[in-house]
Specification:
Two copies of one chain form a homodimer. The first copy, chain A, is an alpha/beta fold and 288 residues long. The first copy, chain A, folds into two domains: 89 residues, Winged helix-like DNA-binding domain superfamily/Winged helix DNA-binding domain (Arc Repressor Mutant, subunit A); 170 residues, Rossmann fold, CATH 3.40.50. Chain A is built from 14 helices and five strands. In chain A, helix 12 links the parallel strand 4 and strand 5. Chain A starts with 11 loop residues before the first helix and ends with a helix. In chain A, 45% of the residues are buried. The structure holds a DNA duplex (30 and 30 nucleotides). Chains A, B: One of its GO terms (biological process) is carbohydrate derivative metabolic process. Chains A, B: This is Transcriptional regulator, RpiR family. Chains A, B: Pfam families: HTH_6.
DNA sequence: CGTCAAATGTTAGTTTTCTGTCATTGGGAG
DNA sequence: CTCCCAATGACAGAAAACTAACATTTGACG
């Protein structure tokens, strides 16, 4: 497969896929499952039958056909024809790339995907909504994280700072916490901690200290965290166990993205103006 | 998953194929045609049906079935089942949790999941393997990244340093590149760049400079990157477009994880010992 | 709380694919 | 030339995939 994104002669199948991508949001629940299955398994879909897809997606067979129809494809039959046609034209199998994936990598990938979807599933939990509220309403936000997630914490601080004012990365070690000599801002203060196994001792201390000073605390962590729930209700646990050499960051990353997004969309902020201002600033500094 | 990811689980289908290859010579004329068609078109066979194969091979439909039977496969039906089993894995599990999501999140999530699976699909591409090789074989590795991915680059450097020796984060701005005053290490030097839109001007410059000094370059970037392909063959493009407030980091994060994992598993490293040493060091410093 | 429309599933029918039975072919041994 | 047996195909029946029509459920809205 060539470099992927650039250019495909627009076969009807590609056209169809993009229609599905766009239309996904407007889909009813069950059909959305089917669409998701299609998009995630495009390269192995040719091995499937309508029925088998239905089973794996957990819907009735006919729903598969209906979904296809909705996007202007006359059922499984025509869909397969499109696939075949695309193959005969480009001469390359959609399956080629991932076909050779050893099965343990497949498992690995499935685990990662599951981790991400687990995080998304938490959007409506009280914990997530508490986190959203703290981050949205506080006058100032501190972000911190150590060891293998320090970078993630820094990025999160940077990105969050685009979404709302007064965000600072807090480096306990280096600044000796001079930031907290003064009492929290009047409008409320919030600390966002990212911590994973092996938990940095500082995190818990920092969190408790924050609470004592009257700050809200949000914790993004892995599934084993022992201390966070005692300190705050805004704890987001994400799966991190993997077969890889190190723990996975995907779940954590997804969680931060969602929180940032939620904060950006919080009421009373004009994001467009904010982004414009930011771009103007960035231009002047000439970093691009 | 243990350290070796060389374990291509021997699926029944592979077994079947090798039996066919061996038995080819002893086959009657018509069946030989069929067998040949199978072997030559293994990757498009999923689009075919017993009938269509028969037509293209110029034999009767039943002969196809007979040929399969001869090699211990109970007909087209079982053959397809074997193929399906071999190739389709992902998705069943995701369907359940995601059911309750509001549909706009659903779309968002699917996009993210697809980004990750796209990255995994690239494991076997030449570009990925080149990256793997550079990172595994170089005597020293520098990692860099700016703006919203600087943190990711730093984390990557830290994690990569657990997998192999002599990894440093390179901060062009701050160190004024003093690291590169001296010529590259004798065993080879490698620069890993993470860069996304809006591309930092420094990245391209840095990459070209590295090449001039005889260093290998690996680039992890988004789908729009314009400069990387001119500089090196080890470019990993990951989808980053999302409906969120900012671009997605998931694809990039997945890519770094895979590269780190691959490096850790590169031949000639005793990862267990390395991890033990590291834990001992960490204990003494008392960071946990 | 009821109504209505969209969504989804169920059942049954149609088409396609697959396979079992039997007839035909074709080449080699006597 | 005839007989024999493997090879092959034709046909029909079985099974599966697919679809259409109807029934049930769900959820929004008044």
């Amino acid at each position: 497969m060539s470099h992927g994104f650039a250019s495909y002669a627009e076969a009807p199948i590609d056209d169809f896929v993009s229609r599905v991508e766009e239309g996904m949001a407007a889909l009813p629940k069950q059909e959305a499952k089917v669409a998701q299955y299609f998009l995630l398994n495009l390269n192995s879909i040719s091995f499937e039958t309508g029925k088998s897809i239905a089973q794996k997606a957990g819907v009735a067979e006919i729903t598969v056909g209906r979904m296809l129809r909705r996007f202007g494809c006359a059922g499984m039959k025509e869909f397969k024809a499109m696939m075949r046609h695309r193959y005969s034209v480009t001469g390359e199998s959609l399956a080629d790339d991932s076909a050779e994936l050893p099965s343990d990598w497949q498992e690995q990938m499935t685990a990662e995907l599951r981790a991400v979807s687990t995080v998304y599933a938490k959007i409506n939990t009280p914990a997530f909504q508490a986190a959203e509220r703290y981050l949205g309403e506080a006058e100032e936000v501190y972000v911190t994280g150590f060891q293998t997630v320090r970078g993630l914490a820094e990025d999160t601080a940077r990105r969050l700072a685009l979404a709302r004012p007064r965000v600072r990365f807090l480096s306990g070690h280096d600044s000796m916490l001079s930031e907290w000599l003064d009492p929290p801002a009047a409008g409320g203060s919030c600390l966002l901690i990212i911590d994973v196994i092996p938990y940095a001792a500082e995190c818990e201390t920092l969190a408790r200290m924050a609470r004592e000073q009257g700050r809200d605390v949000v914790v993004i962590t892995d599934e084993y965290c022992h201390w966070a729930h005692e300190v705050t209700d805004a704890v987001i646990n994400t799966p991190s166990k993997t077969g890889l050499f190190l723990e996975s960051l995907l779940g954590l990353t997804a969680a931060t993205s969602l929180l940032i997004h939620a904060t950006a969309n919080a009421t009373g902020r004009d994001m467009d103006a904010r982004m414009r201002d930011w771009k103007r600033l960035a231009q002047r500094i000439g970093i691009f």
